[in-house]
């Protein structure tokens, strides 16, 4: 996935919310956007997902141009897996129905079998017929992750999806899920304001401040020679 020289402003105002953003996420890599709240991290995810359109520049996913200032591929046609702080499950569908919804072009039986295997992979198969409201926040996030795995996306976008979990559960789930995406060779772009998180999981880090990328590199480089001390405290 390539984000090429993206600029973006809210409501066509003259002041850029994002300026000259360049990001690369290779297959099987976990890349983190690190910075304080309001620096533009989540806006980048919205542009990649197709929720917003860039003012200039381009976005390429799996060698396909999906966004520029002249054209934009619809959200549902980008094959992007989105996981946010809140699980956004369908409340009227059971756990297994939520996962089946993400699987396309297969028979009912094949969809069910795939969904059940993913539930087993995450050790939540006993909630197969439960509705989201009876699950804990952590269990709901696991179902949301299961749905993304079932989708087999070209890229996964994570907007602080583990922040509402307790520390121990957060580390366990995060490490397990990211290793699953790595095994499937699916690129992951993760937003965080926690300076410890990229050090633990990221192959590459982009540090942001005020709508700009001010430093990028491997986690060891960022932490050994930081240009933004306040971000890493």
UniProtKB/TrEMBL annotation:
**Any idea which GO molecular function terms this record carries?**
ABC-type ferric iron transporter activity; ATP binding; ATP hydrolysis activity
Per UniProt, residues of the ABC transporter domain are 1-233
Q: Which domain of life is it from?
A: Eukaryota
Kindly state which keywords UniProt assigns to this record, in alphabetical order.
ATP-binding, Cell membrane, Hydrolase, Ion transport, Iron, Iron transport, Membrane, Nucleotide-binding, Transport
One term under GO cellular component: membrane
Q: Which InterPro entries match?
A: AAA+_ATPase (IPR003593), ABC_SmlMolc_Importer (IPR050093), ABC_transporter-like_ATP-bd (IPR003439), ABC_transporter-like_CS (IPR017871), ABC_transpr_FbpC (IPR015853), P-loop_NTPase (IPR027417)
Record SUPFAM superfamilies: P-loop containing nucleoside triphosphate hydrolases
The UniProt record lists the keyword Cell membrane: yes
- Entry-linked Gene3D superfamilies: P-loop containing nucleotide triphosphate hydrolases
Q: What is this protein called?
A: ABC transporter-like,P-loop containing nucleoside triphosphate hydrolase,AAA+ ATPase domain,ABC
- UniProt lineage: Eukaryota, Metazoa, Ecdysozoa, Arthropoda, Hexapoda
